UniProtKB/TrEMBL annotation:
Pfam families xrefs: Glyco_hydro_79C
InterPro entries: GH, GH79_Enzymes, GlcAase_C, Glyco_hydro_b
Lineage: Eukaryota, Fungi, Dikarya, Basidiomycota, Agaricomycotina
Protein name from the UniProt record: Beta-glucuronidase C-terminal domain-containing protein
Domain of life: Eukaryota
Amino acid sequence: MSNDQPVNYGSQLFDVMNAVSDKVGGVEYLIGLSLRDPKSSNIPLLAGDAQKALGDKLDAFLLGNEPDLYSRHGNRPNMANYTVNDYIGDFASVLQSGWFDQFDDHLKYITLQHYPQDNCKGTHRFELIYYLQHSNAVDLAQWQMNGIQVLKSSPNPKPLIMDEFSSASCGGVPGISDTFGAAMWSVDYALQLATVGYSAAYLHIRERGITYNLFDPPDAPAGGAGAWTTNPSFYAYFPISEALQAKSGSRVVDLNIQNSMKDVNQSVAGYAVYDASSSNVHSVVLFNFANATGGSVEFSLPASFFPSGGDITVRYLTAPNVNEKTQISWGNQTYAGVGDGLAVISTAPSVVADKVVSCSSGCNIQVPGPAIAVVFVGGTPTLDPAPSASPSSTSPTGATKTKNSALPSLQIPLSSWVIVLTFLFTILI
């Protein structure tokens, strides 16, 4: 089967897109325009029709897509073995050749696409353990740091977007991309991208049956009746979107707990999410990548996180183990076994309901393995009906992590935290 299939569509597609945006509220779209044949009349026709049909719901056009695949279809035949280094060279060349300055007024974003590994030939380098090591997410996010520095130093910097990513290219890897471990990695990597300067990141989705899909339609003809299936990757959206609920935008900082940014043997990680317009921490995201046999980890948050006192709410993304594909829960809810898009109360043994914790004198947050915990320092998101926490503001000076209360505490001073850009960071479908 060809991986370059022409698709014919009409105005009904735009009707559906408009309806989705109106129903959900606030959804905007990026429209890709291919450069496979730059002289094709379809490019301006699609751009004009999309702009007319979508109006303000059209965020931007993406001009050019996957240049490493062009040669396979008869374009750029002299670059049949297009590599990451080739792309880095191309990216550096166009920035430094005057292209960025020449088209500055026409550019809204700079976009990239990148996967941790290639599965296009049916082989892969990394197994699931790769995705459970925080230091690998840190290294992967550094992939285009030279280009990021160029953007940051330009007189009129453009937001940088990772407009396509997932666990492995060409549909992912069965047994890896369709697991809870990969969902945890998606959260970790998305937040890591925010720390180095990306303004948005888009999880990829394809036709039915692809292992990294967020969800799959029923096994029926297009538009046929039947239940939909929610896949592990979908659950990554919950901790990200709720942790980044600051009204003025978010700044994300890697806490480097127990030197997790470099130590591949660490099974923990953590991020602080700041309100972009202040020095207040809005939420804290804590990871325990250890499998079920690894036991719980206890993270100790000092009183300096909570100068106003009051209670905070902790919400968990959990599963029985990192290989789980179905019994995944956010809070005490799950989409396992449902086909109508409405979450139900989870009965999985690994489920952890929301916890309200008093932190006026500091507190300990226990995170089972494997799980992600979001600590809502600035109040529980209004988009979820879960119990609300008392709003508070903070200027933290450190975070502590202890495992089984046996290891010595590790304080992370504010001065050691990395500086990040203040772009609004969102995850969009």
